[in-house]
Task: structure prediction
Amino acid sequence: MKHLKEPKFSLAAMAAALVTSSAFAQSSVTLYGAVDNGIGYQSSQTSVGSTTGGHSVVKMNNGIWYGSRFGLLGKEDLGGGTNAIFQLEEGINSATGAEASTGLMFSRQAYVGLTNPTYGSITAGRQYTAYLQLLSAFGPANWLGGAYGAHPGDIDELDTIYRINNSLVYSSPSFHGLTLGGSYAFGGAPGSINSGSTWSLAAQYKNGPAGLAVGFMRLNNSAVGGGPWGAYSTASNAGAQTAVSAVNAGYQYAQAQQRLAVTGGYTFSSQWDISASYSNVQYIPGINSKFTSTAVFNTVGTVLHFRPVVTWDLAAGYSYTRATEANGITHAASYNQFNLTEYYSLSKRTGLYALEAYQRANGNTVALGGGIIRATATIGDYQNGAPSSSASQFVAGVGIVHKF
Result:
């Protein structure tokens, strides 16, 4: 009868096993997310492009304070300080269970890349631009929430509704408080490297309680296949152009869009801090546009944040947006927006919030199909698809958010 041979282990094999075990120990994948639901009131609601039939509405809102989502965040130590990283993040409508953007499984972010403390990080996929990543530290959405607190229609992309497809994003290490970034997204149009592409450059400087950031972004829309400008933009959500509202509905078929913005902030103490921003947004006409000359919007805004005790965060904000006179308009549109927010922390993960905002629109703008119409109010970016039927709009909401 033959005896089975006992397995033999060499020192080399044991060392290899230990190295493999150690390598796996340096890797991690984190499941995270947030669920945010509440009740909201809106004084007047219509559809984009309509100026009649508006009525007040009370409805369940989701993601007003912090967009409902779930995601996977991963990292693997490759040695020498270099890590492979990835992020997959899906936005959800936590009031209904639906996708935040129909037809996109990971609508918020989906990228993979490398990071090193000496050389910086580079990532590839659907993600935020370098413009937003470095400007947002002092943007209005931090304490006002983007849904109600973003500048009208989020026209200057200081909230997180612009996610760019097919993009490469680089961020440098911090050099004595200075961080640089750049991004480029491939349009994929045959015969043109420019058509459909998006690119941005930005810089941020932090020194003690003060900080400043500047950024520039350009979107080159594409008409490949005979579609309208914007249908093939890298900033689209399943083919739909991002951030179309009553503010810019008449300019959505622009051949190109560009944004220049400056944000900054100062922390006075553990209780008080202030931030401010300026942006210049331009919509440049093309062969399929419903307007003939470049439309320019300038916005200034500020946010004062107050934490009286560790469990409370209070904020007040104001922004003013004005269009230049163009395309036959002599009384250009302007928007005054006022915001208040109150947040109470039940724990590190769970909080209760209340938000209030009012906007007054004045002047005229270009309609979706061309022609001149009266400007109507549209607060933040949550009302992009539901602007007011008049020059004024008031919204308020209360809710609960839990992060995991």
About this structure: The first helix runs from residue 11 to 25. The first strand starts at residue 28 and ends at 45. Confidence is low (pLDDT under 50) at residues 1-25.
